[in-house]
Protein backbone atom coordinates (compact mmCIF):
# COMPACT_ATOMS: atom_id res chain seq x y z
CA UNK A 1 0.00 0.00 0.00
CA UNK A 2 1.42 3.40 -0.99
CA UNK A 3 1.25 6.57 1.10
CA UNK A 4 -1.37 7.93 -1.29
CA UNK A 5 -3.67 5.00 -0.53
CA UNK A 6 -4.01 6.39 3.00
CA UNK A 7 -5.16 9.81 1.81
CA UNK A 8 -8.81 10.56 2.54
CA UNK A 9 -10.19 13.70 0.84
CA UNK A 10 -13.40 13.36 2.83
CA UNK A 11 -11.46 13.75 6.08
CA UNK A 12 -8.86 16.35 5.22
CA UNK A 13 -8.75 19.36 2.90
CA UNK A 14 -4.99 18.87 2.68
CA UNK A 15 -5.54 15.33 1.42
CA UNK A 16 -7.97 16.69 -1.19
CA UNK A 17 -5.37 19.24 -2.32
CA UNK A 18 -2.70 16.51 -2.59
CA UNK A 19 -4.86 14.26 -4.72
CA UNK A 20 -6.06 17.17 -6.87
CA UNK A 21 -2.48 18.23 -7.63
CA UNK A 22 -1.70 14.64 -8.61
CA UNK A 23 -4.85 14.37 -10.76
CA UNK A 24 -4.26 17.62 -12.65
CA UNK A 25 -0.57 16.87 -13.17
CA UNK A 26 -1.38 13.53 -14.78
CA UNK A 27 -4.25 15.06 -16.77
CA UNK A 28 -1.78 17.65 -18.10
CA UNK A 29 0.68 14.93 -19.08
CA UNK A 30 3.40 16.42 -16.88
CA UNK A 31 6.05 14.51 -15.00
CA UNK A 32 6.84 15.55 -11.45
CA UNK A 33 10.06 17.15 -12.67
CA UNK A 34 8.26 19.05 -15.43
CA UNK A 35 5.73 20.45 -12.95
CA UNK A 36 8.53 21.38 -10.57
CA UNK A 37 10.28 23.28 -13.36
CA UNK A 38 7.05 25.07 -14.24
CA UNK A 39 6.40 26.42 -10.74
CA UNK A 40 10.03 26.87 -9.66
CA UNK A 41 10.47 24.22 -6.97
CA UNK A 42 12.33 20.95 -6.48
CA UNK A 43 10.97 17.63 -7.77
CA UNK A 44 10.87 16.30 -4.22
CA UNK A 45 8.55 19.14 -3.20
CA UNK A 46 5.98 18.07 -5.79
CA UNK A 47 6.20 14.46 -4.63
CA UNK A 48 5.76 15.39 -0.97
CA UNK A 49 2.77 17.64 -1.73
CA UNK A 50 1.14 14.81 -3.68
CA UNK A 51 1.76 12.44 -0.74
CA UNK A 52 0.48 15.08 1.74
CA UNK A 53 3.71 14.71 3.69
CA UNK A 54 3.95 18.50 3.47
CA UNK A 55 1.31 21.13 2.86
CA UNK A 56 1.14 23.10 -0.37
CA UNK A 57 2.20 26.69 0.28
CA UNK A 58 0.33 29.76 -0.91
CA UNK A 59 3.34 30.69 -3.06
CA UNK A 60 3.19 27.50 -5.13
CA UNK A 61 -0.61 27.34 -5.01
CA UNK A 62 -0.67 30.64 -6.90
CA UNK A 63 1.73 29.17 -9.47
CA UNK A 64 -0.50 26.10 -9.94
CA UNK A 65 -3.50 28.38 -10.44
CA UNK A 66 -1.57 30.27 -13.11
CA UNK A 67 -0.77 27.07 -14.98
CA UNK A 68 -4.04 25.16 -14.67
CA UNK A 69 -6.71 27.75 -13.82
CA UNK A 70 -8.76 25.20 -11.85
CA UNK A 71 -12.44 25.74 -11.10
CA UNK A 72 -11.60 26.09 -7.40
CA UNK A 73 -8.23 27.88 -7.15
CA UNK A 74 -5.56 26.10 -5.13
CA UNK A 75 -4.80 29.35 -3.32
CA UNK A 76 -8.37 29.41 -2.04
CA UNK A 77 -8.19 25.75 -1.00
CA UNK A 78 -4.96 26.37 0.90
CA UNK A 79 -6.51 29.29 2.78
CA UNK A 80 -9.53 27.15 3.66
CA UNK A 81 -7.26 24.34 4.85
CA UNK A 82 -5.13 26.68 6.95
CA UNK A 83 -8.24 28.12 8.61
CA UNK A 84 -9.73 24.71 9.38
CA UNK A 85 -9.02 22.15 12.11
CA UNK A 86 -9.40 18.85 10.26
CA UNK A 87 -7.14 16.73 12.44
CA UNK A 88 -4.13 16.97 10.09
CA UNK A 89 -2.33 19.52 12.29
CA UNK A 90 0.77 17.37 12.94
CA UNK A 91 1.89 17.41 9.30
CA UNK A 92 1.79 21.19 9.31
CA UNK A 93 3.60 21.45 12.63
CA UNK A 94 6.53 19.24 11.67
CA UNK A 95 6.83 20.89 8.25
CA UNK A 96 7.03 24.37 9.78
CA UNK A 97 9.35 23.25 12.60
CA UNK A 98 11.88 21.83 10.16
CA UNK A 99 11.91 24.98 8.02
CA UNK A 100 11.62 27.71 10.62
CA UNK A 101 14.54 30.12 10.97
CA UNK A 102 13.24 31.31 14.33
CA UNK A 103 11.38 29.51 17.14
CA UNK A 104 9.74 31.22 20.12
CA UNK A 105 8.36 28.73 22.66
CA UNK A 106 6.42 28.98 25.91
CA UNK A 107 6.00 25.74 27.86
CA UNK A 108 3.77 25.64 30.92
CA UNK A 109 3.77 21.96 31.88
CA UNK A 110 6.49 19.87 30.18
CA UNK A 111 9.96 20.26 28.72
CA UNK A 112 9.41 21.31 25.06
CA UNK A 113 9.43 18.32 22.71
CA UNK A 114 12.42 19.68 20.78
CA UNK A 115 14.49 19.71 24.00
CA UNK A 116 13.37 16.38 25.49
CA UNK A 117 15.75 13.49 26.07
CA UNK A 118 14.68 10.09 24.76
CA UNK A 119 13.91 8.75 28.25
CA UNK A 120 11.99 11.87 29.29
CA UNK A 121 9.94 11.69 26.09
CA UNK A 122 9.25 8.00 26.68
CA UNK A 123 8.17 8.66 30.29
CA UNK A 124 5.87 11.52 29.25
CA UNK A 125 4.32 9.62 26.36
CA UNK A 126 3.82 6.50 28.50
CA UNK A 127 1.21 8.28 30.63
CA UNK A 128 -1.47 7.45 28.05
CA UNK A 129 -0.90 10.28 25.56
CA UNK A 130 -0.45 7.88 22.62
CA UNK A 131 -1.23 4.28 21.70
CA UNK A 132 2.22 3.36 20.33
CA UNK A 133 4.80 4.88 22.68
CA UNK A 134 7.94 3.72 20.87
CA UNK A 135 6.69 4.99 17.52
CA UNK A 136 5.87 8.35 19.10
CA UNK A 137 9.33 8.54 20.70
CA UNK A 138 11.00 7.90 17.34
CA UNK A 139 8.84 10.58 15.74
CA UNK A 140 9.80 13.07 18.45
CA UNK A 141 13.51 12.35 18.04
CA UNK A 142 13.14 12.70 14.27
CA UNK A 143 11.57 16.14 14.81
CA UNK A 144 14.61 17.13 16.85
CA UNK A 145 17.00 15.91 14.16
CA UNK A 146 15.09 17.86 11.52
CA UNK A 147 15.58 21.08 13.50
CA UNK A 148 19.01 20.70 15.12
CA UNK A 149 20.56 18.75 12.26
CA UNK A 150 20.37 21.64 9.81
CA UNK A 151 23.63 23.13 8.46
CA UNK A 152 22.47 26.48 9.86
CA UNK A 153 20.32 25.76 12.93
CA UNK A 154 17.45 28.17 13.62
CA UNK A 155 17.51 30.78 16.38
CA UNK A 156 15.48 29.40 19.28
CA UNK A 157 14.14 31.15 22.38
CA UNK A 158 12.29 29.06 24.94
CA UNK A 159 10.66 30.11 28.20
CA UNK A 160 9.88 27.33 30.67
CA UNK A 161 7.56 27.56 33.63
CA UNK A 162 9.18 26.62 36.95
CA UNK A 163 6.58 23.82 37.05
CA UNK A 164 8.40 21.75 34.42
CA UNK A 165 11.47 21.55 36.66
CA UNK A 166 9.68 20.44 39.83
CA UNK A 167 7.16 18.07 38.24
CA UNK A 168 8.93 14.68 37.99
CA UNK A 169 8.45 12.91 34.68
CA UNK A 170 9.85 9.43 35.06
CA UNK A 171 12.47 8.55 37.65
CA UNK A 172 15.00 10.84 39.34
CA UNK A 173 17.60 9.49 36.89
CA UNK A 174 15.42 10.58 33.97
CA UNK A 175 15.00 14.05 35.44
CA UNK A 176 18.73 14.42 36.13
CA UNK A 177 19.54 13.48 32.55
CA UNK A 178 16.89 15.87 31.25
CA UNK A 179 18.04 18.85 33.30
CA UNK A 180 21.68 18.17 32.40
CA UNK A 181 20.57 18.18 28.77
CA UNK A 182 18.93 21.58 29.29
CA UNK A 183 22.19 22.85 30.80
CA UNK A 184 24.00 21.67 27.67
CA UNK A 185 21.37 23.34 25.49
CA UNK A 186 22.04 26.69 27.19
CA UNK A 187 25.59 26.50 25.80
CA UNK A 188 24.38 26.41 22.19
CA UNK A 189 24.91 29.77 20.43
CA UNK A 190 21.53 29.59 18.69
CA UNK A 191 19.46 28.81 21.82
CA UNK A 192 18.17 31.26 24.43
CA UNK A 193 16.62 29.38 27.36
CA UNK A 194 14.89 31.16 30.25
CA UNK A 195 12.69 30.21 33.21
CA UNK A 196 9.54 31.89 34.50
CA UNK A 197 9.83 31.59 38.26
CA UNK A 198 7.09 30.86 40.83
CA UNK A 199 6.98 34.49 42.01
CA UNK A 200 5.65 35.59 38.61
CA UNK A 201 2.18 34.68 39.91
CA UNK A 202 -0.68 34.99 37.36
CA UNK A 203 0.23 35.77 33.74
CA UNK A 204 -1.08 35.23 30.20
CA UNK A 205 0.97 32.06 29.79
CA UNK A 206 -1.27 30.21 32.23
CA UNK A 207 -3.72 29.73 29.37
CA UNK A 208 -1.48 27.05 27.87
CA UNK A 209 1.71 26.25 25.98
CA UNK A 210 2.35 27.59 22.49
CA UNK A 211 5.07 28.48 20.03
CA UNK A 212 5.59 30.96 17.22
CA UNK A 213 7.71 29.97 14.22
CA UNK A 214 9.11 32.14 11.44
CA UNK A 215 9.13 30.42 8.05
CA UNK A 216 9.97 32.26 4.82
CA UNK A 217 9.55 35.65 6.54
CA UNK A 218 6.08 34.65 7.72
CA UNK A 219 5.05 33.77 11.28
CA UNK A 220 2.81 30.83 12.16
CA UNK A 221 1.79 29.69 15.64
CA UNK A 222 1.05 26.38 17.27
CA UNK A 223 -1.18 26.09 20.33
CA UNK A 224 -0.74 22.92 22.36
CA UNK A 225 -3.77 21.05 23.70
CA UNK A 226 -4.78 17.58 24.94
CA UNK A 227 -5.13 14.93 22.19
CA UNK A 228 -4.13 17.33 19.39
CA UNK A 229 -2.85 20.84 18.97
CA UNK A 230 -3.84 23.60 16.60
CA UNK A 231 -1.73 25.18 13.89
CA UNK A 232 -2.57 28.88 13.55
CA UNK A 233 -1.78 30.67 10.29
CA UNK A 234 -4.16 33.64 10.18
CA UNK A 235 -1.85 36.71 10.54
CA UNK A 236 -4.14 38.42 13.05
CA UNK A 237 -4.34 35.36 15.30
CA UNK A 238 -0.61 34.68 14.99
CA UNK A 239 0.08 38.24 16.08
CA UNK A 240 -1.91 37.63 19.26
CA UNK A 241 0.36 34.69 20.13
CA UNK A 242 3.45 36.78 19.38
CA UNK A 243 2.20 39.47 21.77
CA UNK A 244 1.45 36.84 24.45
CA UNK A 245 4.98 35.50 24.05
CA UNK A 246 6.42 38.98 24.53
CA UNK A 247 4.33 39.47 27.67
CA UNK A 248 5.55 36.16 29.12
CA UNK A 249 9.11 37.06 28.13
CA UNK A 250 8.87 40.38 29.95
CA UNK A 251 8.13 38.46 33.17
CA UNK A 252 10.70 35.66 32.86
CA UNK A 253 14.09 35.59 34.56
CA UNK A 254 17.11 36.92 32.69
CA UNK A 255 19.34 34.66 30.63
CA UNK A 256 22.10 34.84 33.21
CA UNK A 257 19.88 33.29 35.90
CA UNK A 258 18.91 30.24 33.86
CA UNK A 259 21.90 28.05 34.68
CA UNK A 260 21.63 28.77 38.40
CA UNK A 261 17.93 27.86 38.35
CA UNK A 262 18.62 24.62 36.45
CA UNK A 263 21.48 23.66 38.76
CA UNK A 264 19.29 24.27 41.80
CA UNK A 265 16.54 22.09 40.27
CA UNK A 266 19.11 19.39 39.52
CA UNK A 267 19.96 19.13 43.22
CA UNK A 268 16.41 18.04 44.06
CA UNK A 269 16.83 14.82 42.00
CA UNK A 270 20.05 13.59 43.58
Automatic annotation (TrEMBL):
Residues 21-64 form the HTH cro/C1-type domain. Pfam families: DUF5753 (PF19054), HTH_3 (PF01381). InterPro entries: Cro/C1-type_HTH, DUF5753, Lambda_DNA-bd_dom_sf. This is Helix-turn-helix transcriptional regulator. It comes from Actinomadura meridiana.
Amino acid sequence: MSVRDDLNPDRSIWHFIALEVLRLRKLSGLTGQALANSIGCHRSYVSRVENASIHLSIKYAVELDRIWRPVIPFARLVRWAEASDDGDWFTGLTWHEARATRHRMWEALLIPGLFQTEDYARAALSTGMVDDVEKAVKTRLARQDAVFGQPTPPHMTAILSWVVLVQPVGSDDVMREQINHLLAVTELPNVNLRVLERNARSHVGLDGSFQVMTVDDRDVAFADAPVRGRLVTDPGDVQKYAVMYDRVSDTAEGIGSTRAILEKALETYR
